[in-house]
Design a protein that fits this description.
alpha+beta
Length: 212
């Protein structure tokens, strides 16, 4: 898993922010609730420290805490790793708004259903959620959101069954969105500013919490 330093959170920061203990964190690791490759060892001025992909681990811990009641840790691990239930998800517009998956504004502007379709497929949810996530962050304009939605509709299907990273970049005021197989590490020239980078894994983890 290749991530930018700004996308990482240290183990100490994670424990402080979430209120979980060191013992809980490593018990969840042993039970495979948190994947081994999310524990990233890096050299710092104090020696070796453990870091995590920030958005992914925060979403996973939120999901563990909110889903663990009534489930054993083994059952919870199976539920968190089960993609089949997500892939078969279909929600109406009312469901999407009531469950706070995307805003009504995003749904109205980017949620056109094809003829005869009454519910949104999981692939459509991913697109809507990605657009809404960047709009709500304040980093993206509505015009850029149109470009992103078009890019995802035309490109994401080519990555079916594979994980991808989305790069949101600007150069001299011109916006581009790039999808690349994950893990990926792109190198841009000095005139390109990376506004944001999202991974499908992060988006899926956040959606699991909203759909559970």
């Amino acid at each position: 898993m290749i991530v930018l330093d700004k996308d990482l959170i240290s183990k100490k920061e994670l424990l402080d922010l979430t209120g979980i203990s060191y013992g809980q964190l490593y018990r969840w690791k042993r039970k495979k609730l948190i994947p081994e490759d999310w524990f990233i060892r890096k050299s710092t001025f104090t020696g070796q420290e453990t870091f995590f992909p920030k958005q992914t681990i925060l979403a996973r811990i939120h999901n563990i805490i909110n889903m663990k009641d009534g489930l054993s840790l083994d059952e919870l691990a199976d539920k968190l790793s089960d993609m089949s239930s997500l892939n078969s998800t279909a929600l109406t517009a009312e469901d999407i708004v009531s469950r706070n998956i995307v805003s009504q504004m995003t749904l109205n502007k980017f949620g056109n259903l094809t003829s005869g379709q009454s519910a949104y497929s999981f692939e459509q949810l991913i697109i809507l959620y990605t657009v809404d996530y960047l709009l709500s962050s304040g980093e993206m304009s509505l015009e850029e959101a149109e470009l992103l939605s078009q890019t995802l509709v035309e490109t994401a299907a080519k990555f079916e069954g594979k994980s991808w990273d989305l790069y949101f970049v600007r150069k001299m005021g011109v916006t581009s969105f790039i999808l690349a197989l994950s893990p990926s590490e792109l190198v841009f020239d000095e005139g390109v500013r990376l506004v944001n980078k999202l991974s499908l894994g992060d988006l899926l983890e956040q959606l699991k919490g909203k759909l559970s």
